[in-house]
Amino acid sequence: MEELNEDMKTVANDPNMFSDVPLEAEVQDDTILKVDHLKMYFPIKKNLLGKPIVNLKAVDDVSFAVKRGTTIGVVGESGCGKTTLGRTILKLYEANGGSILFEGEELTKLKKKQMRKYRTDIQLIFQDPYSSLPPRMTVGSIIAEPVRVHKIVPKKEVYNYVLDIMQKCGLPPQYYDRYPHEFSGGQRQRICIARALAVQPKLVICDEPVSALDVSIQAQIINLLKDLQNNIGLTYVFISHDLSVVKYITEQILVMYLGNVMELGETDEIFSNPLHPYTKALFSAVPVPNPDVKMNRIILEGDIPSPANPPKGCKFHTRCAQCMNVCKFKEPAYIEAAPGHHVACHLYDEEVMAHLDEYDAEFADLEEARLRMEEEAKAKKNAKQKIIAAFASCKHGLAKAGAKCKGLFTRKRGAADELAADGAGEQPADELAADEPAAVAAGRMPYDDDEPAAVKPDERAAGEQPAEKPAADAFDTVAAGKMPYDD
Ligand code: SF4
Predict the structure, then answer these.
(1) Which stretch of DSSP H or E encloses residue 126?
(2) Which candidate in 201, 257, 414, 420 could, as Cys together with 123 as Cys, close a disulfide (CB 3.0–4.6 Å)?
(3) Is 332's C-beta closer than 6 angstroms to any atom of ligand 1?
């Protein structure tokens, strides 16, 4: 550990630590990065034509500027859009709107090939030093690869150049041939820093570079970053949720909530005089290293709203203890409350505060309209439910009637089957009815004879006389001069 600290002291005291890096020992007072109304939306629902209809607004209208050789801290709760902001600046995501000016060049309009020129100028240090290093490459080859690809130094000088960078980042030369898994978290983060610095960047986006490290290693890495900045004039965008670290390393702070900037200003000014209720709540959680000082923690009530469906008006109003009626429907303007200290809150907007009565009346009207709409929607819903219920009962009645008919039909068919099964000679009632005209045509009444008509032709064929025969013979008998009963 002492050896490493010694290394860092050497780094801090050696202004020519990167012999091949064009040094900018004197920090120029010019803007290296200017982000203007930057928007980065992720579509979460698309229509049939593939057009996004619901977006997750990860970065929504963010503006800030960073001076060369300084550090801006981006703070906020998890999911507020800090990392997305860093990646959009790097053009790892294509912005949906706004501009990113890097040294006067508009990055959002550059094509992939044109962006190659700026790839070495803007570098990223990742949060997780474990997964951001290729496990099958040695430390030397990890650092040397971007140097070769971007032709930072002639080929034969790469080895010495890498050793030099490693030494400046507190990595002894014997680590050159070792693999990432042989190192601790702090050493891996040093490898990541060495890899980022090897291409001589001007701007480094540090995405929570120390959050995966323990406190003593955090201090080493933070000191290393500060020393590098002092010596080669690096500019950092330092993304973190650790406010103590941010206070130590940054000159400016940008507070984000649900993709929006809530407050922006000089670090000392923001820490001594936080204005936004959200910043106050965040900073109230920073531990004070004095047991006599009583901490006044501000606990935020309620859940963080979904970034896919953020609240109207001020996005923070659902959790703000100082919320007013105007906050619920009017988005706060981004105003300069003090020189260089910007805040997005109605409390510091004199125009809004002077007309609170009017806004209260407007809110009352809006609430009335909302309640009316809710009532109408409720009534519509009830009517719809009634129609659905009536339709369901009608459907039930139809189903019941259908079942009844089916039962009757089944019973009738069963009876017919039974009749058919009772005997081959017996005809069902329907058949008898069909034979009635034939019986009448044969000169008898259908109810005169119990015998089925179908049987009669057979009987005639067998020489048997049907019942009518004697009656017919009676006429012959009378015609022969004798009575039919005179046998
Ligand atoms: S605008 Fe209103 S709701 Fe938003 S932070 Fe300010 S006081 Fe709170």
Answers:
(1) none
(2) 201
(3) yes
